[in-house]
Write a structure and sequence with these properties.
Blueprint: H1 3-26, E1 31-32, E2 35-36, H2 42-56, E3 63-64, E4 73-74, H3 80-91, H4 97-126, H5 129-141, H6 143-149, H7 157-176, H8 181-196, H9 203-223, H10 228-245, H11 255-280, H12 287-302, H13 312-324, H14 342-349, H15 352-373, H16 379-398, H17 403-431, H18 440-461, H19 469-481, E5 498-500, H20 506-513, H21 526-534, H22 538-548, E6 550-556, H23 557-561, H24 564-570, E7 579-584, E8 587-592, H25 594-598, H26 600-605, E9 615-620, E10 624-625, E11 631-632, E12 634-639, E13 643-648, E14 654-662, E15 668-674, E16 676-678, E17 681-686, E18 697-698, E19 702-708, E20 711-717, H27 721-726, E21 729-733
Parallel strand pairs: 5-6, 13-21
Antiparallel strand pairs: 1-2, 3-4, 6-12, 7-8, 9-12, 10-11, 13-17, 14-15, 14-18, 14-19, 16-17, 19-20
């Protein structure tokens, strides 16, 4: 091996090592004295599945009774990421939960480092070593991909991006190395198949090759060149992937990829046939793109009348609507468009990301110029790179989630732009018979990478897990202080009860507390959760909990002040009827309306269940937020039958109950409830016992009172835990 080769390997290794260290450093907050705290929301369900897979390898969870409780939920996540993480744990001899968690926390880092290498060899094939090294370094810096490949970000998107890059790499090789065209096309097909086993939305990446094929065939027709190699190369990749996914073609998690691959393979054959017919008849090349547009329009019009082409048409329409229809705006942050109003436009454009997008668009222009100047043998593969970069940007405009791949393509485009600008500067100085100053290259590089670098530094400096200490400790408390539910390790049957939380928190509750949940991050149960929190009567709230078998309810500060718009969107309500927003310069004041105070969410979070007969506060976290007065960040309530107190008093009396309570944080509050008349008596249902059951406990007996203008009568009453749990009736006379 010559010195240049050794230097190249060392340079790439150094970049990968830097990437490895950055990913570890950015994920440092996932290491705690209690073990691994994972980065996001879906990470916790991946860990549940990985743990199950380790003990049932290669089998994994396909149905989970702990989701959408008590009905359960079919898992539609393809299993490859979870199986690879489980296999790695098994190979390394890790079978305990802590050991499996540690291995799984490293998996994204490993996949992310391999992606750096893939980008390097891809760009080295199309440009040169210097551009490839810079592109690899920009992949290290890609801020939004970093979020999915840091230590503890145990989510399948890290593998999804790697496999998409691998399929692109091999397809580029297939077009640039004609002597091994079909070998690399097969390898690309293998990567495409693996992608289908990783992510259900793999079709959006397969479509990049189809769009490239349409553009390349158009160029071939214009140039008078046959398109056989173009069509067969793409077709081989599709067919290999189709064969490999076919064993599971009829499953809900594979069917979209199978139908997509089949439809795209047919489309390539059709385009090749049409182009061959046009070439044989010496028709204008313009007829091909115009004919494609006409065919697409006609098929769209007749599709509803002929069964939607075995479901393919419906799948395409659903996918397009999901990607660019903005259906998840306000519901799921990562699925919302990057820009959908003036505020988001301003936020994006006047940010490091916005500058990086503008620079990458300039890089797209530079890449187009590079293609025009390149050898004919390199143009097809360079064109494929260009199509990929443009499509990655368009996907991101449709859904913010795709920043994890578009920030990689932006880095590649900026790398190409840098060397093209540097070459122009060098030529300018050479024309003046001057040497380019040494400072020009580093200054130009710094200008181009600064927007990306700034975001990377920001993400690396502060990327704590989404779950904070209050949530983590509260969910551990719930696990330790509630009855263990059945079938957690083999969730094929419904458990004894469930926990009601907003869907954002469902995977946390499931994994950390080991309890079934009504709603989780797959949005199953989200509508019922929204109905519960926004219900305006205890009867309506109880009907939701009874139908779902819920025993515990969790509320938090963000549910009131951050996630209320999402709740109202899921419940088809107007957020303005619950919260009024007043703007004071750059600050916004949120003022709850009376309707909001009537909701179950407000009665629990603000008033600790006062005025209700079935909800009692049993735990609150240590951090208090807000003012007048400050409220604990996380509160856990228990849904109980409640004791019914029947009071004999005159019909003209006002009757109620009062109880002094101290929370587990030492906060004193008063539970108050008013009785209703029932025949010749008054009845009032109360949820707290006067004996110690939790750290949150009564500090005195109930004070039962009745009175009118003539005077007030009172009586102290003790209520046992048995009375509360069994719904016993206590009779008293005032």
């Amino acid at each position: 091996m010559d010195r240049g080769k050794r230097s190249e390997g060392a340079e790439l290794l150094a970049i990968v090592l830097v990437g490895f260290l950055i990913k570890l450093f950015a994920g440092r907050y996932s290491l705690s004295e209690n073990g691994i705290i994972f980065s996001g929301y879906d990470d916790y369900y991946h860990m549940r599945r990985i743990l199950y897979t380790v003990h049932h390898f290669p089998g994994t969870l396909w149905f989970d009774s702990y989701l959408n409780s008590p009905y359960g939920f079919d898992i539609t996540w393809p299993p490859l990421f979870d199986q690879l993480s489980a296999a790695l744990s098994i190979v390394l001899g890790q079978h305990t939960q802590s050991g499996i968690e540690m291995v799984s926390a490293f998996a994204p880092v490993i996949f992310g480092c391999i992606a750096i290498i893939v980008v390097y060899y891809m760009i080295r094939e199309l440009c040169d070593r210097k551009v490839a090294l810079l592109a690899a370094f920009m992949t290290v810096l890609a801020p939004y991909y970093l979020l999915y490949t840091l230590f503890g970000a145990t989510d399948h998107h890290c593998l999804e991006v790697l496999l998409q890059l691998a399929s692109l790499l091999f397809m580029i090789y297939a077009f640039s190395r004609s002597e091994k065209r079909y070998l690399f096309a097969v390898l690309s097909g293998l990567a495409m198949a693996a992608l289908a086993y990783t992510w259900q939305g793999a079709d959006v990446y397969y479509g990049i090759f189809l769009i490239f094929a349409a553009i390349k065939i158009t160029i071939d027709l214009k140039s008078g060149v046959g398109s056989k190699d173009t069509a067969t190369t793409i077709l081989v990749g599709y067919v290999v992937a189709l064969i490999l996914v076919s064993p599971f073609w009829n499953t809900s998690w594979m069917l979209p990829s199978f139908l997509g691959l089949a439809a795209m393979a047919v489309a390539v054959l059709a385009m090749f046939g049409i182009s061959s017919l046009l070439a044989a008849r010496n028709m204008s090349w313009k007829a091909f793109p115009l004919g494609l547009a006409a065919i697409i329009i006609v098929l769209s019009l007749i599709s509803p009348f002929i069964g939607g082409f075995f479901g393919v048409s419906g799948l395409i329409n659903t996918g397009l609507d999901y990607l660019w229809g903005g259906k998840m705006t306000g519901k799921i942050a990562e699925a919302a468009p990057l820009i959908y109003d003036l505020d988001t436009f301003s936020q994006v454009m006047f940010s490091g990301l916005g500058l990086a997008i503008l620079l990458s668009i300039a890089g797209i222009g530079a890449t187009a110029i590079m293609i025009r100047k390149s050898d004919a043998s390199k143009r097809p593969s360079q064109l494929l790179l260009l199509v990929w970069a443009i499509m990655a940007l368009l996907l991101t405009i449709g859904q913010t989630r795709f920043l994890y791949i578009s920030t990689i393509s932006m880095g590649v485009m900026i790398s190409i732009l840098f060397f093209m600008l540097l070459d122009l500067i060098n030529k300018n100085f050479a024309g003046k018979e001057q040497r380019t100053p040494k400072w020009v290259a580093p200054v130009l590089l710094l200008i181009l990478i600064m927007p990306t670098l700034a975001d990377t530094i920001s993400f690396t400096g502060s990327t704590p897990p989404a779950i904070d200490n209050d949530w983590y400790q509260s969910l551990n408390w719930l696990r330790d202080n509630s009855n263990v539910t059945s079938n957690f390790d083999n969730p094929i049957r419904s458990a004894e009860y469930s926990v009601m939380s907003w869907w954002d928190y469902g995977n946390w509750v499931l994994y950390i507390s080991q309890r079934p949940v009504v709603a989780n991050n797959f949005q199953a149960g989200a509508i019922d959760a929204a109905k519960f929190y926004l219900s305006e009567s205890e009867e309506d709230a109880s009907s939701v909990l009874d139908a779902r078998g819920s025993r515990y309810i969790i509320t938090d500060y963000n549910l009131v002040y951050g996630k209320l718009p999402a709740l109202t969107l899921w419940a088809n309500e107007d957020v303005d009827s619950y919260m009024k927003m007043n703007e004071y310069g750059t600050q916004i004041e949120a003022i709850p309306t009376q309707r909001f105070f009537n909701t179950t969410l407000a009665r629990l979070y603000f008033f600790d269940g006062a005025g209700t007969g079935h909800f009692r506060l049993i735990h609150e976290s240590s951090t208090f937020l807000g003012e007048s007065p400050a409220k604990s960040e996380v509160k856990i309530f228990e849904y109980v039958p409640g004791a019914l107190i029947r009071i004999k008093a005159g019909p003209d009396q006002k009757v109620g109950a009062l109880l002094n309570v101290t929370s587990n944080q030492g906060r004193a509050f008063t539970y108050v409830n008013e009785a209703s008349q029932d025949g010749d008596s008054f009845v009032i249902r109360v949820p707290y016992s006067t004996v110690d059951r939790y750290e949150t406990r009564a500090t005195s007996p109930y004070l039962i009172f009745s009175g009118n203008e003539a005077g007030i009568k009172t009586k102290n009453v003790d209520v046992s835990e048995e009375d509360i749990i069994k719904g016993n009736t206590l009779d008293i006379v005032l």
